[in-house]
Amino acid sequence: MPAPGTYRLWIFDSLTQEGIPATRAEAGPEALGPEERRRARLFRRPADRRQYESAHLVLRRLLADHTGLAPERLEFGREGGRRGKPRLLGSPVPVHFSLSHSHGLVAIALAADPVGVDVQRVPGVRTVERCLPSLHPAERAELTALPESERPDAFALLWTRKEAYLKGLGTGLARPLAADYLGSGGLAARPPDWTVHNTAARPGHAAAAALRVPATG
Q1: Which of 115, 163, 160 is nearest to 7 (CA)?
Q2: Total domain count for the chain?
Q3: Tens digit of pLDDT for each residue in 65-101?
Q4: CA 23 – CA 106 distance, rounded (Å)
Q5: Which of 139, 137, 146 shows the shortest CA–CA distance to 160?
């Protein structure tokens, strides 16, 4: 398990799973739980269904490797109700995790402290314009100061930072997007007690991770 104040991050293609290390435990489709199988059936496109199943099977393998539990024995719940942050039940070691997938790319993070991760495909200009009004005023100012051609990439980097942080908090998008500043400048103005930054992703995508800094003293 990563030491306090650190996390492990994997970003991989949902089909090839390139970049995922060998683990002691293997996990086939039968390792998925009833809720995962139910959610997988909701996807209309087979590619989306395969992406979801691949992401959750790899998550089970990684959690099994870190906890010593068999992948099929892992049970999940949610903090604070049905829409709360996913958590692992009955783990013999402290573990927090986060998972995200978008258009064939998957990101998974494990940590001893609350962690969030997000990966997104870079959107079009129209999508950026529709989302601008919901952002923090300082974030809007930063994006609108850029040439229109540069906004999609900058927006994708910002959006993944924001979603990673909200996932780490456990609120997701239920928290107003304007409530927190996750812009590219003025790092001192970002949420206290958290480190949030972008990480490398394949071309056409952006990714970010957020980790709550453990209390000292």
Answers
A1: 115
A2: 1
A3: 999 999 999 999 888 767 778 999 998 888 999 999 9
A4: 18
A5: 139
The reply to whether 96 falls in a domain is no
**pLDDT score, position 138:** 94
pLDDT in tens, 146-205: 999 999 999 999 999 999 999 999 988 899 999 999 998 877 778 889 999 999 999 999
Q: At what angle do helices 137-144 and 151-169 cross, to 10 degrees?
A: 160
Task: Check: CB of residue 121 under 8 Å from CB of residue 205.
Answer: yes
Q: Which domain holds residue 159?
A: 119-212
Q: Please return the burial class of 76, using the count of CB atoms within 10 Å of its CB with bins 0-12, 13-18 and 19+.
A: middle
Contacts of residue 33, Cβ cutoff 8 Å, sequence gap at least 6: 74, 75, 76
Q: Which residue has the tokens 């209309």?
A: 44
Which CATH number do you get for residue 159?
A: 3.90.470.20
Rounded to two decimals, the pTM is 0.91
Residue 60 inside a domain? The answer is: no
Say how many CA atoms lie within 13 Å of 27 toward its Cβ. Answer: 26
